[in-house]
Amino acid sequence: MRWVLAFHIIFMVAWFAGLFYLPRLFVYHADARDEPGLQRFATMERRLFIMMNIGAAGTIVFGLWLVFEWWLPLPGWLQAKLALVLLLIAYHIYCRKLMTDFRSGRNRHSARFFRWFNEFPSLLLLAIVILAVVKPF
Ligand code: HEM
């Protein structure tokens, strides 16, 4: 189980690296006006999103492996954790929509919006890791 848990955490870190950095790129992208700059941000976002998908897939595959092998029936902390993980997946999917909006010139959000948007994953990380490590209920 320790190996499965180790890879679960490794992929989680990769996922969060993208979840923290992609919205930051959106902040700068929203302020960019020059064509080369707009192209550069679109390329950086596309490549980073590929890494985010790999991180998300690995976190979920190894997480579900832990569940089905060692954690059924689901304890309270894990039910709460999975509910928050669903929110994280929704955030991930919304980032994809925002990325395609930027690419097709349809973005309507300001840099200020993306600064606030960028805070959300930190709150989820805080709650999910406390649930996973402390297992309060
Ligand atoms: C579908 C997604 C996920 C599933 C099914 C899942 C499931 C699990 C399970 C069953 C454990 C084992 C707990 C133990 O044996 O102590 C675990 C550990 C852990 N998970 Fe997840 N998890 C998921 C996503 C995440 C995410 C998104 C994060 C980070 C924000 C995360 C962070 C952790 C941490 C830090 C541990 C280690 C806890 C410890 O060793 O005490 N997991 N996860």
Explain the overall architecture.
This protein has helices at 2-31, 35-70, 76-103, 111-117, 120-134. By secondary structure, it is mostly helical. It has one domain (2-134). The chain is elongated, with a radius of gyration of 17 Å. The two termini are 22 Å apart. 20% of the residues are buried. The model has no long low-confidence stretch (mean pLDDT 97). Residues 5, 8-9, 12, 59-60, 63-64, 66-67, 71, 78, 82, 85, 88, 125, 128-129, 132-133 line the site of protoporphyrin IX containing FE.
Averaged pLDDT: 97
By DSSP (H or I, 4+ residues per run), the number of helices equals 5
Helix content: over 70%
Distance between the termini: 22 Å
Radius of gyration, in Å, reads: 17 Å
Helices and strands, in N-to-C order?
A: HHHHH
Specify the biggest β-sheet: none
Q: What is the tally of beta strands? A: 0
Strand content: under 5%
Number of domains: 1
The bound ligands are:
protoporphyrin IX containing FE
Low-confidence stretches: none
Outline, from the CA principal axes? Answer: elongated
Short description:
With 137 residues, the chain is mainly alpha-helical.
Keywords summarizing the entry:
binds protoporphyrin IX containing FE, 137 residues, single chain, mainly alpha
Give the SSE map.
Layout: H1 2-31, H2 35-70, H3 76-103, H4 111-117, H5 120-134
